[in-house]
Each structure stands twice: as C-alpha cells, then as structure tokens.
Queue: 2 jobs
Job 1
Amino acid sequence: MSPEPMRDESEFLASYDPRAYDPVAVTVDVVALTIRDGALHVLLVRRGGAPFAGMWALPGGFVHAGGRREAEDLPDAAVRELAEETGLSGKDGALGRVHLEQLGTYGAPGRDPRMRIISVAYLAFAPELPDPEAGGDAADAAWVPVGALGLTESGDQRPGTTRRLAFDHARILSDGLERARGKLEYTPLATAFCGDEFTIPELRAVYEAVWGEELHAGNFHRKVLSVPGFVESTGATSDRGGRRGGPRPRLYRAGDARLLHPALLRPGREEEIR
Amino acid sequence: MSPEPMRDESEFLASYDPRAYDPVAVTVDVVALTIRDGALHVLLVRRGGAPFAGMWALPGGFVHAGGRREAEDLPDAAVRELAEETGLSGKDGALGRVHLEQLGTYGAPGRDPRMRIISVAYLAFAPELPDPEAGGDAADAAWVPVGALGLTESGDQRPGTTRRLAFDHARILSDGLERARGKLEYTPLATAFCGDEFTIPELRAVYEAVWGEELHAGNFHRKVLSVPGFVESTGATSDRGGRRGGPRPRLYRAGDARLLHPALLRPGREEEIR
DNA sequence: CTAATAGTGTCTGTGAGACAATATAGC
DNA sequence: GCTATATTGTCTCACAGACACTATTAG
C-alpha cells in the first residue's frame, strides 16, 4: 500500500504533515538514443556547476511535485526535460514521434552528494534530431556517440575515457542500452529511430548500430517482411540507390504490430547466458 | 543529470535546502507472488485506516530516506516491507531464496489523496511461504488467489469483485502479472517458485498457474531438459508418484543459466500482438 | 484392475542462417 | 566496366507442437 497505515504518533504526523517526512527529492533522467552516421548516439549535457562540474550527465531535472508548481506526471516531466534540452517542442511537436518508456528508478543513498535523490529514468528512441542548444547553465549539450564513452559490461567507464559521466549515469546509460538491445528483438521499435518512411537497409542499419554487429542483408530483409505488422509498403521507391551503388530500395512505413512474432533474435548469444 | 544545475535563486535554494522542495514522499510497494494449491497467489494486506479503509493493498511503506532514520536503498526497503508483512526474516533468512526485481515506478498526481507519493514497485517470486500475520494496524494479511481479484486487461477490477484494491494497486498488480508471465518465457525464474528440489511436473504447474493455460506434459518435459542450464539433475527420485498415480518423477535443482535459450514461449499469442 | 501420470520416441511444419543468383545503381 | 548493394531463391538444421507408446503408481 502506498503510505502504510498509521502505526504510532510519528507515523500519524507523517501521514498528514509532509514536512515531517525524511527529506527526499524526485528527479527524472532521460536516456535519449538516436542514430547518427550509422552510429548510436545518446543526448548528454555538460554540467556547469557543482557537484560533478565539467562532467557529462543525462538530461533531467526535478519533477514538479505540486508545491510551488502544478503537479506533473512522471512521463510529462521526462518529455519536458527532453524538450528543454533539445529545444524541440514536446508531445505535439517534433518530439511527438519519439518513443518514451520508463527504464527504472535509481535511489541508492549517496548517489547524489547533496541529499537523498530518487531518480526515475526514462528511455527514449528518437529519429535523427538537430543538435541541441546548450541552454541555461548547462555548459554544453550534444549527441555523443555511445562508443566514445568507454562503457563496460559492469556499468562503469573504462579508465582514460575523456567524457566522464556524473552521478550513477554510466550505470543508468548501460541499463538503457541493454534495454534497447532487447527491445529491438521483440518489438518493432527500431522504426522509432527512422523517419516516417524508411528502407529495409536503413532499418538494418538501426539494428547494426544498436546491437553492434553486422547482420546478413538478405536474411534480414526476408525476415522483416515476413513478420506480420512490422512494416508496410508505401509502394514507392527511394530516389537513390545504396551508398556505394546498387538498386533503389523500396520504401516502407511502420506497421501496426506492437510485438514481433516471431521475434528477431540477436545472433550468437549462447555464450553470454550464464 | 540528477538535480539540474542551479538556474536561479529558487533553484539554488532548492539544491541545498530540502525543505524548499515540493513536498513529496517515496514508498515501495511489493507484488509478491507464490503458488498455492496450483494457483497463483499474491500477498495482500487489508487497510485499517483511511484512506481506502477496509480495502486490500499491496504490502509497502515509506522508504527510510535518511532524515530521522538511517538511509536505506530501495531494494532493502522492499525486503524490509516484505519481511515485516510475512513475519519471515529478511535476506539472510527465509526470504533469501526469494527473487526480487524492480517492477516500475508509479507517481501520477492524485494517486494518493493525502499528498504527492512516488511509489517504486517491486516484483517478488517466492516458494510457498506460511500465512502472513496481520501485524501492526493492518486489519488482515493473506495470500490471495489472483483469479479472485477480477483483474481486467486494462488494469482495473471487474465490478462486483468483493476484494477491492486501494490506490492504483490493481494497475501495479496487473503490470506485475504481465511481467511475471513474460519472465517465465525467457528466464529460469519459474524455479524461484519451487523449493530447492523440484520435479518437472511441479515446474510445469508453475508455468500453468502463471500463464493460466495447460501445457503439454511430454513436450514441456523434453523442452526443459533441452535448455542448457535450466535445471540440473539431483540423481534422486521423488518419494511419491503423481497426484492420481503414475511413476515417481525425478528431482532437479535450478541450473546456472540466467536466460533460457531457446526461450520457452507461451503458446498461441499470435492474436494479442496488434 | 483401472485410470492417471512420467518419461521417451517420432513425425511434421516453421523458421533461422548459410549460400547463391540476379538485377540495378554509383563511380 | 567494376563493385557494392537490393532483393529473391534454395538448402539445411534446429526446434515447437502433435501424437503415440511404455512403464509405473494411486486408489
């Protein structure tokens, strides 16, 4: 149950006087992913002030909980933070096609040196968006290639990586990447990284960027078309052939499936299962 | 980033004076599942006081955030609440074999009529445990058959259901059940519902209770044994045959796999995919 | 004895992946 | 022309599911 029933006087007070609670703040952080130049990128901001000044961090901020400002729901807070950082308009605008889902909540004591912070992380899949503007006091904001962050399987950054991540954001980002890799297996969300119309080779490039391995073009093509509802044909053909030649690929739109069946499983995962 | 950098004076104050924040509290709620008499059960408590007095709720309570009490991590809070409700000892005791994972965070404004509450929900898979004791001010506590709660696909309860769930706990429970159904497909966590040693028919009963459909005994048996690391033989044989006759099944332990490969997919899901 | 169950064998359809072939575009 | 690419075809192996069969136990 959400607040437990009163147990003694202090609990009674706590139920009705918020100030009697342990002090805690709630933030949202967003792992926003996109594909640029065939590589997976994440939106990061460089911190201007302490703590972790000069380090990079996921875009995020406090949830408007209802005191001085109108109470907002958690996904709304995530969209708001993303819109503020990217300079794009929210749900009704350019961010309308962005897929957003809750990733997880991070609340270990000490994860923020100032006070107890509970951070609800969201995961976003976006088509290619313009460069963000370093707004407010963020020293910088940019789409950063995920490969340049030196993430290890354990959620840390390799020593020597130039762009260091603040707080536990390396862990959050690692969790987001693993979630994204899995999501591509059994949902059609790879299309959220593409424009409204896309070719099968473009879709394959999304899979290759997120999974970090090349896929067999022929088998991928047949597989995508064989899964009901994954993509639907527009009937049109791209106006250009492949990058280094080849016939003009056909154009497709996202289909109406919410799950891929059968799934599109990552190759060669037998080893990493124990 | 977790607290965003200071942007103006109020933000500056907010960064260092917790009392300047919007008042918000963080709780954990636990969807604890087990199998009893071949049916899936969830641990619920009946509320003694307002709001929602007399209704049933998931066990849960406030996270000790570090004010008056020592700061605790979110999973520790979930284990503590589970231990308090079940009367069993925590990580080192009877709850040691319980699987616990984060389910999601629920923070819509108004979900608790008293104040803004952010609730981090956890999902637990437990072997059969004793009946809980209605401790503290909970009017009652019990393992309740999930089927008796009249949950609909949309996360509500059917009208006429006698046991009503408080807050948004019907939604949280529905999400937990759907997560559990999926987890059994691609992880060996069905073994978390069994004792240390179990038979393949017992394991099949877990799948049937969670998925709500009968499975083909022969194919299930061969499938479980063919997935590397799912189960390992103890060499022993159960001392009794099947409920209504039959040979004595062999005993197995949980294996070392963390993922099932190939997965054990639910039959007949082609329809519910759009 | 009878019925139900554990465990194994066999067959078939589907699908993943390797490999190949053909046509088309960039250079 | 040369090469890379899009798309389709073919083959093989793994596996899910249907069905069948035997041995064993409860009642």
Note: The beta strands of chain A are 25-36, 39-46, 56-57, 60-62, 99-106, 117-125, 140-145, 231-237, 250-254.
Job 2
Amino acid sequence: MDVDSRLLRSFAAVAEEGNLTRAAERLYVSQPALTKQIKQLEQLLGVRLFTRSRAGMALTGPGRALAARTPDVLAAVDTAVRETRSAGRAEARVLRVGFLASAANEATQDIVADFGRRRPGLRVELRQAAWSNPTAGLADGEVDAALLRLPFPGQDTYRVEVLLTEERVAVLPSTHALAGRARLDFRELWDEPFIAAPPTTGPFCDYWLAVEARPADRPVKIGAVTDQPDEWLSAIANGYGVALAPASAARFYARPGVSYVPVDGVAPTSVGVAWAPADDENPVVRDFVRSCLRAVGEGPAGPTGSPTTGP
Amino acid sequence: MDVDSRLLRSFAAVAEEGNLTRAAERLYVSQPALTKQIKQLEQLLGVRLFTRSRAGMALTGPGRALAARTPDVLAAVDTAVRETRSAGRAEARVLRVGFLASAANEATQDIVADFGRRRPGLRVELRQAAWSNPTAGLADGEVDAALLRLPFPGQDTYRVEVLLTEERVAVLPSTHALAGRARLDFRELWDEPFIAAPPTTGPFCDYWLAVEARPADRPVKIGAVTDQPDEWLSAIANGYGVALAPASAARFYARPGVSYVPVDGVAPTSVGVAWAPADDENPVVRDFVRSCLRAVGEGPAGPTGSPTTGP
DNA sequence: CGACATCCATGCCGTCAGGTTATGGATGCA
DNA sequence: TGCATCCATAACCTGACGGCATGGATGTCG
C-alpha cells in the first residue's frame, strides 16, 4: 500500500515525456525498468494510469488525477529534505554555499572574508558544482545558498540578489587564427564548433552558446560536451572548439594553450546569490546575503575600496 | 537521494513512540529492521535524527525539523493516492461504499435502492470491513464513502452526516443467567467478560465496551478479541463473554445460542455516512449522501413506514 | 509489399536491499 | 549480582529491481 516517491518521480517523468523510452533515459534507467515501475505503480493503486499505444504513453483519467497531485507530493518531500538538512547544518554551525565554476570568481574570497567577520563562530563550506547541477545543490537542499550565473533553471522558485555583471569573452585555443586578435565580433564565431555544457541543463547550456545571438539558419555546432572547468579548458586547448566565458575567467582560468579575447555582439552576464524562500527568516543566510552585497559593493579590490550603498 | 515515503512513515512512528521497539511492533516489522531504516534515512539526509540513549530515541534539532514536515508529506501522498483511486472508480462507473459490520443494517438496502434510481448507470460496490479497519477503507482511498458507527477515529478529517440513532442492547450466550430477562441494567454486566474489538481500534473498541459507563474501580474484563461478526457471534455463543450491539443487530444477527436483551444505562449509538472532503463537489458522492438521508428519512420499514424527522 | 523504425512488453539472470532471528553491549533497577 | 530494557550488530535468506536481449505491434517509406 505504500507509494514510494521514487515511483512518483518516474511517473511524473513518463507523464511529461509521454514516452517511456525518453523518460527512461532522462531518469538514467533502462526502458524495461521503467515499464516495470509504472506497472507496479498501477498495481499499487489498482488503476490504469496510461493508455499504451504506438504513439507512446497517454494519461488516463486517473492518471491525470495523479499527475495533478504529484507535484504537491514531490514538493512536500523536497521541502522536508531541504529543511532537515538545513537544520542539520545550523546545528553543526556550518553554512554551506554552492557555486558553479567561474560564478563569483574573485568576489568569492571577499564574500567569505566579510561573512567571517559577521559570524565568527560559523564555518563556510564552499561546494563547487558541476554544470549539470545548475542550482549548485540548492534544489535538493545540499546547500543553504548558491552563487550562480543568471538566469538559472527554476530561478523563479528561489530568492535571488544580483551581485555583479561583466562582459562575456571568447575562449579560444591559442593556435586558433583569431586567438591573437585584440577584439572580435561574435559573428566571426558562428561557424566555430563550441564546447557546451551537458544538454540536460537546458537554458543554461543555450545561454553559454549564445543561441539568441545567432541567426536561425546558422545553428550552433557542438565540438564537445563537458561538465567541469578542467575538462572544458582541456577541450578548448586541444582544439575541439571555442567557448564563451565571463571576463573574469581570463584571470581565474588562464593557462597555456588557451586565449581569451573580448567579443562584441553578445549580452553581458550576471552573477547572483540565491537561496530558498524557506530561509528568508534564517539570520545566517540573511547575513550571508548581506556579505555578498557588501563585498561586491566594495569592489573586487577588497579593503582599499570605498563602501558603497548596499540594500 | 530519494527519500521513500515508507522511511518517513517509519520515522514518524519512531518519533512518536520515542522508542524503537514499540514503534517496530506498531509497524509490524522487527526492531533491527527499523534500526536499519532509521540509519538509512539518516545517511540519506546526512543528518543525525535521533539521540540514542538508554531511555529511547529522542529527536535532535534536524529530527524535529523533519518531524514537523513529515505530516505534510504523508498527507500529500495519501491525498494523491485517494484521488487517483477515486478517479479510477469514477471512470469505471463504480461507487465503492465501505461499511462496518452492523453499521447501517436494514437501512443499507433502502439506500442502495434509492441510489440505483438516481444513478441507473452506476454500480454500487459494497465492501464490508473488519473492525480493525475503523474507517472501512475511507482513510486509504479504498472507498468513496462509508457507513460507520459514530464516533470513529479521525472523524474530524471527514464529512459526516448522521443517519439514524438506535439503542444499544446486550448480546448474551443463550445459556447465560440474564439471557431470559426482558430488560437489564448495564451495571449487571460490570463483572462479565466482554468480547472486544482489536485494541488497535482505540476509541471504537472502548465505545463498544462502554468504558465510560463503568466506575474506575471496575475495569472491563476481556473474554476474547474478535475482528469479524461471525467470530464475534461464535465467541458469544461459546460463552467466552458478552457484548453490546446496536438494537438492529437483534434482527440482523439472530442465531441460535445468542440472545439479545435491551439494556439501560448506556448511551444510544448513531450511524453516519462519511466521505472525504475532496469529494465535496463529486456529484456521485453527493447523490449517494442524498440517498442515505432520503432512505432513513423514509424510515427503515420501507414504503409502508411513515416519514420521520431526520437529523 | 516488404524492410525498417519506433515503442512498449517479456524472459532471464545477477545483485543487493531489506527483512528475520539470534546475540551482544550498555545501563538502570531490585 | 542478576534481571530487564533498549538499541546495535552479525549472519543469513528471500525477493525486489535493474540490465540485457528479444519479441510483438504498428506506422512509414522506398
């Protein structure tokens, strides 16, 4: 009689995709396994959830009823997990902060330093996330706050403060014909293969391919897919393709074989600090956000900068 | 990363009992199994949920956070299951009605007949529940409506219409000294062993032992525990004890070896129809409730009876 | 009309999660 | 000191569940 939330996640995936095979690969299980899970759920509920057909899996009436309720259930589970983990960290006097590679770059140190002055008893644990985890652990309660490039998937369900905005630059193999240029236009890169983030990251992936700055008849060519900064830099250095990056990457990820060139024709990129609405009243998280705003308000140069107005 | 709702149910039981051993028997699993489940949940969440001690299991801070959220999660799961099953029955053109043995008795046939006239296309499936299932399947979505003796556990979370009220009578072995009496007082039964419902039914069990009509220094003696009408009648006929029953039981459960005698000094008993709040707008359930009220309004004798005032 | 592609179901098998029983260690209590 | 209580651990066993390979149904296209 006990409906496992794992079955509900599978159900939700199949309901959304309308297709077992695709849902299976989205969930990283085999298609027969998913067939069995759905069967099991149907038997557990005593109800037929899908009508199987050549075209795929279509929801029945009861299936729609369940699909309508599933988000509530999964959200309740996620909330419970998130709050429990957060309470655990609070008890251990730890604030865990997730960040995506090259999110806050040099600002990060200033933020942590400022927070350390505000909350001497607390330890900040920084967690670097792969690009395939675009909320850097915020979604599953692994972290209390995250430093992210904006926009990120699910942004509307979190609180976000924008911290800073910077140009995007092109990252090229040093052997590339354009690598010596002082500046270039994004149009010159239309036909280059790009090093992309995993396609599961959706808008994030598209954003760093700048698909919006391309004509429809010049689709992006993918030279390689990487999930980590070092993979990414290696792929570029090896000539598999080029990429866009925030300007600060030139300072943080300088290495032999890779060149950074300012580029016109793509919008700048912003970094924000994000947290869960449930932590709105959490004084530690609030202090961390204050530290973020303060640190970037002071400017990246640190103590020599003059204080500016923070909210 | 996936928190199974079964683990949450286990967690909730341990949190409530504050004791692994007792929680284990409440959940019908062994104590080591529960130990492992709690350990697993703690590992999954990366948090210590209980402080173990000689005295039992006490919640930690994160444990309290989880305990605060668990009811939401379980309620969401139960709602989802209930609504899905209900949708399945609606699609199959079936209204499933649970009833406890001797709940509505003769009224039941009138109700079903009336409903059949209102909704010719629908089939009513009657499900008799054991006493150990005091909501007759309403709680787990097995049925759309239930005919129950009032009060029942969890009554506040459902909609209830009272249908009829009747005297309670004593049920005695025919060989019993009091069996020939035209009438007796409940005090005369204080020292008799009673045939009880399973103790897990709590208030329901107490109600039919009429513990409220007894002095504190005369605790009830239990002669046997039964979960079904036939077990119950057999136990009485075999002289294991006596019992209370609604007056209509004398007509519905008359059999050799069992005598029914009106009894003074215990409150009468009511029957109600109950349904889930989620079905408030469900036209089929509403019609069924109307049929219930109509049928008892007409009186149990059927078309010859004169209309009486319903609740 | 037949080869093919797509999509879901089934059979078989190996692994491991999760249950049970039996037992151990810690700790109050008589 | 022996006992009772309570949780943890060990050893073992069953079966749930996932993966692979394959089958059946059904559109599609050359």
Note: Chain A has a mean pLDDT of 84.
